Amino acid sequence: MFSFELDEDTLLRDIRREDAEELFRITDASRDYLRDWLPWVDATAAIDDTKGFIDSCVRDYEDHRSLTAAIVHKGQIAGLASYHLINRANRSVSIGYWLGEAYQGKGLMTKAVTALVDYAFTELHVNRVEIRAASGNKKSRAIPERLHFVHEGTVRQAEFLYDHFVDHEIYGMLAEDWGKLS
């Protein structure tokens, strides 16, 4: 089990099968907002879609391939933060995240990502953490910038969002640099 107290009101913990209904509700309530930057929103049309997603996350966690964590604020799921595939051969992880629209602007994601970066370096013993964000997604890009990640470049037309491509900005943090910031 994975669990971190981020502050007195907020917990970062592994996603669980019993979270499906609540996670679907927040996705559905923030659908238009999330759709601007996330390609999976239209494919999450029913609670069974969320159940399938959670099942794959739980399997990947049990197999030590990735980690998807719920951000629980005042007892409610506010969003998710995750390691995409944990690359053990290259000792690196990539972090992805999203928050429901009602939870924006509270510092929740900065705290969640900080915890994931700390955990990656201290417990998983990776050397590199990467965050990619669409070039136009200023809120998502603000997280690695606030945490002093190095902007390493732009990948042109990196992701197809419904009817158009978006570029991605790549940010990286090395274990030695994170240690100097702590």
- Bin the strand percentage: 25-35%
Q: Treating each run of at least 4 consecutive H or I residues as one helix, how many helices?
A: 6
Output the helix-strand order: EEHHHEEEHEHEEH
Distance between the termini: 25 Å
CA-based shape: globular
Rg to the nearest angstrom?
16 Å
Strand-pairing-aware structural class: alpha+beta
Per DSSP E runs of 2 or more residues, the count of β-strands stands at 8
Oligomer: single chain
| Unreliable runs | none
Q: Specify the helix fraction band.
A: 25-40%
Overall average pLDDT: 95
- Strand arrangement within the widest β-sheet reads 1-2-3-4-5-6-8-7
Largest sheet: 8 strands, mixed
Outline the fold blueprint:
Layout lengths: L2 E5 L2 E5 L5 H10 L1 H5 L11 H16 L4 E7 L2 E8 L8 E8 L8 H15 L5 E7 L3 H9 L3 E12 L2 E11 H7 L1
Parallel strand pairs: 5-6
Antiparallel strand pairs: 1-2, 2-3, 3-4, 4-5, 6-8, 7-8
Helix pairs in contact: 1-3
